[in-house]
């Protein structure tokens, strides 16, 4: 049971510290999601919103783990995820249109 918890801790640490998106966007997208969920609730009700949130996060996890697996824990380039080495350290570049298209499609 410790291994999945270690993997979760690794992912959380990576997500907090990555440079794939500007820092301001990491914060802004939280407010965007909250606003979308509030508007969705006003139009469709709480039960449909909870279902939407569950499905949205399920697809988000699918996208996350697809990138995680294909990039071998963020160490290899794949699709629009680019990794380069500088001074013996792996550096990830900004993610691109494929990732954002998948996120929008999942919504």
Helix content: 55-70%
Number of domains: 1
Largest sheet descriptor: 2 strands, antiparallel
Overall pLDDT confidence: 91
Rg result: 16 Å
What fraction of residues sit in β-strands? 5-15%
How many angstroms separate the termini?
32 Å
- Shape verdict: elongated
Pick out the low-confidence regions: none
Question: Which structural class matches the secondary elements?
Answer: mainly alpha
Alpha plus pi helix count: 4
Would you list the SSEs in sequence order as H and E? HHHEEH
Per DSSP E runs of 2 or more residues, the count of β-strands stands at 2
Question: Numbering strands along the chain, what is their spatial order in the largest sheet?
Answer: 1-2
What can you see in these coordinates?
With 107 residues, the chain is mainly alpha-helical. The protein has one domain. 68% of the residues lie in helices and 7% in strands. The chain contains 4 helices and 2 strands. It has helices spanning 2-17, 23-44, 46-70, 97-106; strands at residues 83-86, 89-92. Strands 1-2 form a two-stranded antiparallel sheet. A hairpin with a 2-residue loop joins strand 1 (83-86) and strand 2 (89-92). Helix 2 (23-44) packs antiparallel against helix 3 and helix 3 (46-70) runs antiparallel to helix 4. The longest helix is centred in the middle third of the chain and has 25 residues, at 46-70. The model has no long low-confidence stretch (mean pLDDT 91).
